[in-house]
Every structure is written in C-alpha cells, then in structure tokens.
Amino acid sequence: PANNVYEMIVEFENVNAEEFGVRLCVGGDEKTTIGYKVAEEQLFFDRRYSGLNSFIDFHKAVFKGPMKNRYETVKLHFFVDNCSVEVFGNDGETCISNKIYPSVGSTGIEFYTAGGKATVKSVEFYPITGTVMN
Length: 134
Fold this sequence. Notes:
By secondary structure, the protein is mainly beta. It contains 1 helix and 10 strands, in the order ββββαββββββ. The chain has one helix at about 55, and strands spanning about 5-15, 20-25, 30-35, 40-45, 60-65, 75-80, 85-90, 95-100, 110-115, 115-125. The strands form 2 sheets. It has a 5-stranded antiparallel β-sheet with strand order 8-7-6-1-10, with no helix packed on it. Strands 5-4-3-2-9 form a 5-stranded antiparallel β-sheet, with no helix packed on it. β3 and β4 (about 40-45) form a beta hairpin. The two termini are about 30 Å apart.
C-alpha cells in the first residue's frame, strides 16, 4: 500500500507450522509482527522492531493473548492507522491494540511461517481514505 491506513482481513488454513502470521509496516529493518503460536494457542503482537527506536526501546514488548484454533482456520482482522494497529483474532476472541512508530516508507506487508507451512485461504484489503471532522 502507499500508506499505512487500511483494514485487512486474512484467514489461514491447512496449518502445519509452529508459528505463522503477518508482518505489517515493513521497510528497511522495521516490521510489526502479528502472529499465532500453534502449540501455545496464542496470538501475539511484537512491536520490538516497529520504528522510532527512542520510544520503542523504552517500551519494547511482545504482547500476547490466548486464542483457540477451534475451526482449523485462523482469522486475523487488522485496522492500521499510521501509528496505531489493532488486531482482532477469530472474530474478536482475542484483541490486541498497540502504538507503533514506523518510518514513512515502511508500508510493506508480508505473510510468514516458522517451523512448517500454512495456507492463506483469503485476504481482503480495504484502503481507508481520510475524513475531515468539523
């Protein structure tokens, strides 16, 4: 995308991996990783490499929440608004919101797996345009 203001819904299936997910706001050495650890049944949000090191270094963290894999698919619903990311796992079973501070050019999106494979069943992407409030 041209900027970091969008809504995206990703559904994974045929999971044979230890971990899988999405990296948002990717550019240079910056990335925000939102993933799922299969054995732990845990959604996580890793902002350790999300930009503006003076702030992120002060608040380095990986945030975690429980999320069952009940349907053999995992659905991640993202709202990204420049320096704010919200993820709703499996239709809101687990929600994590965080501030990030990526560089202007860090707008890439990547899918990843570790320790095996997962299939991206579907992706929906909706750019969000600005509105003016009076």
